[in-house]
Amino acid sequence: MGLPLKNIRVLDLTRLLPGPYCSQLLADFGAEVIKVEEPNLGDYARWNEPKAGEYSAMFESLNRNKKSVAMNLKDEKDRNLFKELVKTADVLIESFRPGVMDRLGIGYDILKEINPKLVYCAITGYGQNGPYQDKPGHDINYLSYAGLLHFNGRKGEKPIPPATQIADIGGGALMGAVGILTALMGRNESGKGQFVDISMTDGVVSWLQSILPEFLAGNEKQKGELTLSGGKACYGVYETADGRYLSVGALEEKFWKVFCEGIERPDFIPLLESPIQVQEQLRKEIEQIIYKRSLKEWMDIFENADACVSPVLTLEEMINDPQIKARDMIVNFEDTRQIGLPIKLSDTPGEIRTKAPKLGEHNEEVFSKLQLK
Length: 373
Hints:
- This protein has 373 residues and is α/β, with parallel strands linked by helices.
- Helices cover 36% and strands 15% of the residues.
- The longest helix is centred in the middle third of the chain and has 25 residues, at 166-190.
- The radius of gyration is 24 Å and the shape is elongated.
């Protein structure tokens, strides 16, 4: 049995992170992903620091299993060639601001006439309509407009941006992949492709499942009152005696009981659902207790306990952790180390087949197969 997406051809016009991560998910499971890049410069991520060989480490990671063709879409000859390429494609992914592809003469309305089966996915910051559709932005801006950044931090502190791109990946890449696969399934029934409009801001709003429904029901909580960001002592990060950190997620009564017994304070057990004022004092007391022992000492206590307690690992510790190794989340491929595949299929697992392509590496291979008039 072959890879599940082996008969799907994807044209990827995107750069940097959201689009390439989206198409990587498809490529890992067999889709033929062709990066359509500007000559000479290509995907900007190629040239970011630090390098991992010829290109940046991030580019190598995001663009494995892909091909690259170099085309100047502002040039009429190349645009006509691109239209011929579209005839052979199942999916197109782009991340330009709304209207850019239309001005180039290769927007969805034109391309669907060329290929009615085309699934066209546009991943943008704010979507194809609304007052912000033409605004520039990055991950931090989308998190801000979605209301998530407001809650990301402790009471009385300024919001803290996360260390990875939640909007780009969760709101853009993952939503894009789901949208594309859903549209492909729909095509099996209708025989037609469709436009997939992905807004990274929309995606983040949809992630607020533990915050927004409660607010919409009339129960507004302030920053620092949410369970996940300081509202409960049972859920948080505590510093240890050696300057390391212990994460505690003992939300349920059974886990909280084991945790309280582990820190030798069974008198805390009845306080799990206590009011916010009590929670603040409880947190301070737990901070003092955890600070008395090293991370190793605490992990020796909780390693085999059902308490939802974990060490806060560095990246070096993470890649050497037995769980990460068991799941093959860091893999060796040729002369590189790659992030493994997070989706494990029992019968048709994905695979890493090739390293990231050189700019325009597959021009001859791809264009020679087009039936040009």
